[in-house]
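Query structure, 244 tokens:
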């Protein structure tokens, strides 16, 4: 599993810094402020749950952290790099190397097997076919699906599909795993399995995970919980320690 564990030695150092981050959109002639002057530090190896009502800005913040969008104001620094100063093409390259995304709906390609779905992010790299195969096998083993490598999504359960999606997010050994309601489409037992897997990846692989969730039971699997409301961090960004 060493192929997917290269970040662990740096656990504890500052990975993410938000300094006065704001985000606004134009809606007709009006400006809609979604995030307002956020300040937040996240250390490498943390597992942070973002909670708050719909419209509080959680997913917008996740999109900024993943380089899918840019802030309207403020500094966004991840791994020492200023994302707010990057061009769209620079963000695309940065995102491919440094971020893994896990969504509520697994976004698997139905015509591809599990291993081919996991391999997709590696097609943007310079890895050889043999190297890609090695990384894919390691990622599938990590999520407990080595025996399902040749199966198509239609042949997998919802929980297995989400495990494939997690393996795909892990396969390039990213600095950040960003999860948007990763268990929202699963039954409770399967959701608990996925959350336990994320917890294991955090604790054993020292993966830095930021998870948006409405579910307090899901949030309890994180190390810390941060609440948002109306585009701001509640309690000045102080986090709740879950004890993990």
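Result returned for the query:
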């Amino acid at each position: 599993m060493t192929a997917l564990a290269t970040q662990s030695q740096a656990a504890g150092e500052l990975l993410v810094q938000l300094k006065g981050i704001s985000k606004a959109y134009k809606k007709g002639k009006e400006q809609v402020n979604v995030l307002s002057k956020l300040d937040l530090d996240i250390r490498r190896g943390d597992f942070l749950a973002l909670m708050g009502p719909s419209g509080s800005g959680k997913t917008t913040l996740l999109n900024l952290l993943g380089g899918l969008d840019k802030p309207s104001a403020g500094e966004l620094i991840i791994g020492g790099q200023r994302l707010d100063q990057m061009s769209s093409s620079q963000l695309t390259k940065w995102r491919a190397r440094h971020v893994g995304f896990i969504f509520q709906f697994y976004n698997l390609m139905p015509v591809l097997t599990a291993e081919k779905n996991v391999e997709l992010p590696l097609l943007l790299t310079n890895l050889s076919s043999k190297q890609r195969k090695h990384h894919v096998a390691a990622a599938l083993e990590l999520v407990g699906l080595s025996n399902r490598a040749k199966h198509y999504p239609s042949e997998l359960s919802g929980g297995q599909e989400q495990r494939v999606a997690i393996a795909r997010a892990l396969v390039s050994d990213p600095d950040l795993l960003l999860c948007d309601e990763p268990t929202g489409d699963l039954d409770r037992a399967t959701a608990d399995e996925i959350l336990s897997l994320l917890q294991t990846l955090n604790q054993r692989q020292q993966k830095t995970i930021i998870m948006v969730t409405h579910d307090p039971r899901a949030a309890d699997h994180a190390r810390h919980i941060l609440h948002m409301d109306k585009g701001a961090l509640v309690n000045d960004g102080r986090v709740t320690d879950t004890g993990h």
